[in-house]
Amino acid sequence: MHLVADALAFSYPGRDVLRGVGVAVNPGTRLGVVGENGSGKSTFLHLLAGLLDPTGGEVRRSGTVALVEQELRPASGQTVGDLVAATLDGLRQASAELDAAAAAFDHEAGDLAELQRTLARAEHLAVWDADRRVDVALTRLGAPRDPARPLAELSVGERYRVRLACRLAERADLLLLDEPTNHLDTSAIDFLTGELVAWRGGVVVVTHDRELLDDVATAILDLDPSWDGRPVLYGQPGYLSYRFAKNQALHRWRQRYRAERKRAARLAEVLDASYEGLSDEWRPPKGSQKHRRATRARIHVKAADRLAQKLEAEAIEVPVPPPALAFPDLPAMSPGWDPGEPLVEVRNPRVALAEARKSVPSVLLDLPGTRVAIPPSGRLLVTGPNGTGKSTLLRVLAGEAGLGRGSRVSREGVRIGVVGQESPALTPAAARRTGFETAADEALSLLAAGELDPDHVVAVASLGLLSEEDLDRPLGELSVGQRRRFELARALLHVPHLLLLDEPTNHLSIDLVDELTRALTTTPAAVVVATHDRRMREELADWPHLTLP
User: Fold this and answer.
1) What is the DSSP letter of 278?
2) Distance between CA 274 and CA 100 in Å, rounded?
3) Closest Cα to residue 373, out of 405, 409, 420, 337?
4) Which of 67, 223, 469, 491 has its CA 20 to 30 A from that of 165?
5) Is residue 64 within 8 Å of 55, Cβ to Cβ?
6) A GO molecular function for this record (predicted)?
């Protein structure tokens, strides 16, 4: 198998997404794809899979292709068993083709090479082991295994894990993954990493997971435009090597941009001085030497024009470098507060579903004898496998989940910013509800509804999370990553004393993940983070740590 993208380009009406992308993926290639939200990472995967037609360049592929997208919108009534059956049917078809080819083979005149290819294909797919392989993948990824479970009743993460397990079991020649670790815990990520390293075909993985890039990627394609406007392929494996090379490139870009801005300012000053001199400095008294006055005027005009042409010819068109996250200066406390009093305190929390469905755990969180108190400027890192109640604990701290047992006390006037694991604005239903509302409109509507204090508001445009163009686009038109950026901006809007972040790196670009991690370690506000991101856990290892069983 092989896949080649040559001078690949794609545009939506009025907006270029990709330009000049060239890569080759062969067996053993594990290409990591990174880039800012909205840079076209998911679009790139769709082009490679043949789901979109490029507006420029071409994609040449041979072999089978499997794509695992970030979002799965199930058909009405579709179940876990339907996805599993589709996978097994495809594998069993390969087995049936082998049986038919062997039964019909003419030992005297038959094409032995064709029979060997069919056998090799069946051996590669390990068709005789398909049922066990699917079951192992579902188990190791923590996916629901009940074939009767409707996909519509599963969470976004549960649906993703079911589909990922099926795709891994299919053993396609080319595997395309879009943010595969977003919904996996540590043991599931370890399983996925082992599968990808052992993959006999090619792998293209869009990810913000820095540890996964270190463990898996043989090369990294950065879809962010460089100073010449083109994506860059970093051929040396490892995230740290990529980070160093990109930082060096960004440093040179910013230096060059500053130099060109200075050159442009100098040109304007010289031209102003030249034309000012033309009108005032050299003029003789009126009424005298008229012919000399006119001749010198022409000389000065020509000299100024030549200077302008020279400086403009030497100038280099350098686009504006990408903006960095401008994290706001958040408060630790309000005036008059006692620094020894917690912002929020929870004791002995227990949360259960009002109605337990079959095969769905009724208890979401149960921590008897546990006290979680978040002081001003406090820090807390929450970890644990999927299903242990990390998201529920953060909802309890935020006051969004009712307690069946225990208590929650918060300081009067405390402002809390929340970024949930499955943010409402990320769902298709939310996009339909918001209609054509833009990110800027929603911020203004929150202010008009009295949900924001006018004296404590951060301007969304000042954060560097969304461009002015994106702020004016309907939320439903933004990419998943851009909508995630808006959720982060929304959590910061009201200048919170406490930030509660559930899997904050999900769907964010890798550059923003680095910037956000640095900001969380230095902000005066209190911060609680629940995450499976291994690199983020390492960087926050000195924080107080709560591991849920």
Assistant:
1) I
2) 87
3) 409
4) 223
5) no
6) ATP binding
Tokens standing for residue 50: 């043949």
Amino acid at the residue 412: E
Asked if residue 225 has pLDDT above 80, the reply is: no
CA distances from 209 to 193, 206, 536 (A): 12, 9, 9
521: amino acid identity, one letter: T
The DSSP element (H or E) to which 485 belongs, if any, is helix 480-492
Structure tokens at 377: 């400027």
- Exposure of 286 in the CB half-sphere (CA atoms within 13 A): 2
For residue 394, give both structure tokens.
Answer: 């953060």
Q: What is the DSSP string of 78-89?
A: -BHHHHHHHHHH
Whose tokens are 């032995």? That residue is 112
- Model pLDDT for residues 259-306, shown as the tens digit of each residue: 877 877 777 776 677 666 555 444 555 555 555 545 555 566 666 677
Instruction: Calculate the alpha carbon distances from 110 to 95, 102, 121, 440 in Å.
Output: 20, 10, 18, 69
Q: Tell me the H-state helices in 152-201.
A: 156-170, 186-197
The DSSP symbol for 126 reads T
Tokens for 418? 């929340």
CB atoms within 10 A of CB 109: 6
Whole-angstrom distance, CA of residue 131 vs CA of residue 439: 46
Mean of pLDDT values over 37-58: 91
CA distance 526 to 346: 15
CA dist 351 and 397 (Å) reads: 12
